[in-house]
Amino acid sequence: xxxxxxxxxxxxxxxxxxxxxxxxxxxxxxxxxxxxxxxxxxxxxxxxxxxxxxxxxxxxxxxxxxxxxxxxxxxxxxxxxxxxxxxxxxxxxxxxxxxxxxxxxxxxxxxxxxxxxxxxxxxxxxxxxxxxxxxxxxxxxxxxxxxxxxxxxxxxxxxxxxxxxxxxxxxxxxxxxxxxxxxxxxxxxxxxxxxxxxxxxxxxxxxxxxxxxxxxxxxxxxxxxxxxxxxxxxxxxxxxxxxxxxxxxxxxxxxxxxxxxxxxxxxxxxxxxxxxxxxxxxxxxxxxxxxxxxxxxxxxxxxxxxxxxxxxxxxxxxxxxxxxxxxxxxxxxxxxxxxxxxxxxxxxxxxxxxxxxxxxxxxxxxx
Length: 367
What we know:
The chain is α+β, with helices and mostly antiparallel strands. It has twelve helices and ten strands.
């Protein structure tokens, strides 16, 4: 019967922790979490501890359960605020069950475990050692109090070793579940970022560009806003690679990505679409404004000294094609095609220039 109740506590504890970890994976509890997040986490841990008390073993006025594990967890990950919040909820919940010598000693026990956990987490030790010390200390304190409260030797000889085994198991499995969920989410976030980010420049890749463009284009139609698209290509980039090597060519791409990000507006979308080709989505931006931004990009690149890893300085230029919905282009889905055609015109008519899709009154603008 003793093992049955303790194992029920473990099952409920692990299931609750898994659900909690999944629901807070975007902002897991840590010592740097906001005060609100810490209080909420402490409150939830206190509720879980009170639920565990409803599945406790009863020995006259004494009840035995794993209510201390949620308190240990929030103390370890979140520090004093969530630990104290959960501790007070545990104390209140225990007094609702009964006010007697056992509940007073339970108050002393949970306060001691909370304070001891907070002290151990500050020690310069490995995570495993800290967890082991915390669980061992709580088990020792529990043993001392339960021996004082219960007089039955036969009950104690079964209860104490059972509690130690289940408490260790519950503690280590709880930490494992939390760490496993966090590692899994970190890997998932990493893979998501890599799937949407260009590995060299850190800009959006072509897949992310397509997703962003489709979403923003639909919004532009719905809000009846102007939407401009720039296609940017480095002039004679093959010559850079052939002369200095691909490693130095990569350095030029990295520098150019910084120029683009620092020149456009903070909410514009800059992407590397492949090779030496870049795009910029200019939201709520008419053609004349987009032209000014394009010229500013072109001039900055032309005047910029690109530092290679060898210490050598070189200069490059870019050609830019521009299209704008609904000034040069009647439909957003045609922006990519028409901006690409405008880039081709810029390449064919001299490079180092901005060309606007022929639907607009300006055909091209040379520096």
